[in-house]
Each structure stands twice: as C-alpha cells, then as structure tokens.
Amino acid sequence: MFEVRSPKRALLGGLGVWVGLVAISLILLPAEGKHEALYESIKLSTLVGVTIGLTIWYLRAVRGGSFVEGLVVGLLWAAVTIILDLALYFAGAFNIGLSEYFTDVASSYLAIPIATTLVIGFLQPRTVTAPELPQPRRG
C-alpha cells in the first residue's frame, strides 16, 4: 500500500530536487538581499517546476501510480532535501538559525509532496468504459 515501486528513482529524484534548488539559489544569490520577494518567488517556482518534471520522470519508470505513492515519494523527496540542506547548514553554509531555517526554508518544501501526490495521482492509468448506448425501442 505504501510501496515505492522504484526506490532508486525515488532517491535520485529527491537528490535532483535538491540539486535544482541549490543551483537556482547560487544563480540568484546576488539578488537575495536586494529583491527578496522576487528571489523567493523564483525559488518556489523552480521548486515546483523541478518537482513536477522529476515526478513525470519517475512515472515513466513505474508506469502509473496512486495518490498514496505520490505522497510517499513526495515525503521522501522533502526528507532528502531537508537532510542535504542540514548537512550544508552544519557545515556553515547557512547564516540563519535552525528555527529560522525550518520556518523559512524547509516549510516551502511542503510543495514537494503536494505536487508529487497530485501529478502521480492524476496521471495514473484509468480504466475507461464506454458509455452505454440507448437501446432502440421495440414495438
């Protein structure tokens, strides 16, 4: 029920989300203090775009899915992203406190399981039945 059918792709997807965020953050770093709203907007848009793209990449390997699988994959990706962020945090890459990291940065990662749940859930194969045609009246 809570199966991730391609664990390798699921872990690589989480790494891909994190790499995408780090890359855009480094590109936008000069604008971070000057244009904070623009910086945050672009970062969140990138997060959602990379997540949706990698979710479709994941789906190509597993051929369908469910809302539950989408949620599990998204939670895994969010966890991978937070763990890798925390490794950078403890290495001194962040200049904010840990509570500020969780309220400001990690809270935006809630978009990851939302996106994966919706994409995997709605793109799952569905059984389509033909509608019944009205029968001609007799007599």
Question: Could you explain the architecture of this structure?
Answer:
- This protein is mostly helical and 139 residues long.
- It is built from 5 helices and no strands.
- The model has no long low-confidence stretch (mean pLDDT 89).
Quick structural summary:
The chain is mainly α and 139 residues long. The chain has five helices and no strands. α1 packs antiparallel against α2, α2 packs parallel to α5 and α3 packs antiparallel against α5.
What's the structural blueprint in terms of helices and strands?
Blueprint: H1 7-28, H2 36-62, H3 67-90, H4 98-105, H5 111-122
Helix pairs in contact: 1-2, 1-3, 2-5, 3-5
Helix content: 55-70%
Task: Please provide the count of β strands.
Answer: 0
Which class best fits the helix and strand makeup?
Answer: mainly alpha
Number of domains: 1
Question: Number of DSSP helices?
Answer: 5
Dominant shape: elongated
Please, what is the average pLDDT? 89
Largest sheet: none
User: How much of the residues is beta strand, in percent?
Assistant: under 5%
Calculate Rg over CA atoms. Answer: 20 Å
Low-confidence stretches: none
Q: Distance between the terminal alpha carbons, to the nearest Å? A: 53 Å
Order of helices and strands: HHHHH
What attributes does this structure have?
mainly alpha; 5 helices
